[in-house]
Amino acid sequence: MARRSKPKLDRKKIAAGVRLILEGIGDDPDRDGLLKTPERVADFYAELTEGMRQDAQEHLVPLPGDSHDEMVLVKDISIASVCEHHLAPFVGKCHIAYIPKNGKIIGLSKLARIAEIFSRRLQVQERLTQEIANTLFKGLDPIGVMVVIEAEHTCMTLRGVKKPGAITITSAVLGGFRRDPRTRAEAMSLIRG
Fold it and tell me: Catalytic residue at 94?
C-alpha cells in the first residue's frame, strides 16, 4: 500500500468555495447569520480531513515487554468520515480484532487512533475498512486481522433515496480470520455481543 502524501490545507480556498455555494443556492453570504459561515465550514472540513495530514504507521509501535497470543478486540470505536462523492459526513462504529504473532501487541488506544486517522479523510467506507485492516496486517505482522465498520451515510439519508436509519456494514478479513471460519465466527460473536 502506497502512503499518501500529506497535502497542505488551504482554509482560504475552502471559505471562498463555501461563499460561492451560498451565492449559488441564492442566499446572501454577507447577511448577519452567514457572515462567519465560510470560515466555520473551512474549520469543519479541516477537522474532518485531518487524517489526510497524518501517518497511521507512526502508531504501530509494539509494547516492549508485553506479550499476548489470543485475540484482541476493540469494538464500538466511534468514527466520522466524509463521503468523497458528496462531501457529506458518515458516522458509525468501527470494530477491530487482531491475533498477535509472537506476542507482538500495541496499545489499545492505538487501534482507535488508527481508525480515526483513516476515517478523517475523504473516503468511501469500503476503502476505509480495507485501509485499517491492511495497515495493521502489514505493520504488526499478526496471525490475522478483522475490521468491521457499521455507518450511516448522510448522502443516503438526507438526499437521493432519503432513507434515514439505513446502516452500511463493511468488513475486511485477513490472515487467520479468513482461513479459519471458527475464529471469524468468534470475533463476530464478540462484536455482536
Answer: no
